[in-house]
Amino acid sequence: MDLGSVGGLIGGSAAVIIGILWAGSPLGAYFDIPSIFIVVVGSIMSTAIAFPLKKCLGIFGFLRWAFFSKAADPAQTIDMLVTFSEKARREGLLALEDDVSEVSDPFLKKGIQLVVDGTDPELVRNLLSTDLNNIGERHMEGINLMIFAAGIAPAYGMVGTLIGLIAMLRNLEDKASLGPNMAVALITTMYGSLMANLILTPLATKLDSVNKNELMMKEIMIEGTLSIQQGDNPRIVKEKLASYLPPAQRASLGGDERD
Question: Tens of pLDDT along 172-203?
Fold first, then answer.
């Protein structure tokens, strides 16, 4: 579980609750079921109109990805590819066949298997690049869905506020109800803003970051696999793949390899 996402969600909610209590208002005054219904259900329905139902139902998988995805260690992947490069130079590409079954990442496993099978390098690059593009497009569908929902939630907050104001204006003769009715009308705007800025927008940004990290890992795997197939010096393989990492992470790579 990603502690940053969970901690941020809990901390943000706590900040709002503490602010309400600090202002001297009871929490119950900020709870309104019709307002919640307008913002949450309205946002869901608009998202269902904008995106295929299958994509909408898949949002739970993306939420799980945001909270429970475990970031891969690029240094570990690079060290593995450098090790494969050393073995391939000493014993030939067919020697990697025994290592394929031990590779846990399906993408890298596919690439190494293609190399072992003697597939043309250009075809290997095309196949892996096509997989990479498709992975990125699938991820962006979920990210765009979240961005759309984040944009529509405040709009439904305004719709709820207008509904409340209309109801208030229709009952102007009851002076005692004007204040409470106005408060309820504004609560809907608050719900829409919180839904967008505390939940949906941060999650969309988090998913985009996770997606970029995964695509970078896949690019490292592609370049490493092709370098192995070309018989590059392991030291060159390491330097080539290390260029994907920021300088602070390059120190975590293994020591220099011999030819």
Answer: 777 776 777 777 778 999 999 999 999 999 98
Interatomic CA distance for residues 168 and 178, integer angstroms: 6
In eight-state DSSP terms, residue 198 is I
Q: Could you tell me the end-to-end alpha-carbon distance of the chain, in angstroms, rounded to an integer?
A: 41
What whole-number distance in Å separates Cα of residue 119 and Cα of residue 229?
A: 9
- The phi and psi torsions of 250 (rounded to 5 degrees) equal -70, -25
151 is written with which tokens?
A: 């944009």
Task: Give this prediction's pTM.
Answer: 0.80
Torsion of CA 200, 201, 205, 206, to 10 degrees: -40
CB atoms within 10 A of CB 170: 9
Token readout for 125 is 């690059």
Q: Which of 245, 229, 242, 222 is nearest to 132 (CA)?
A: 222
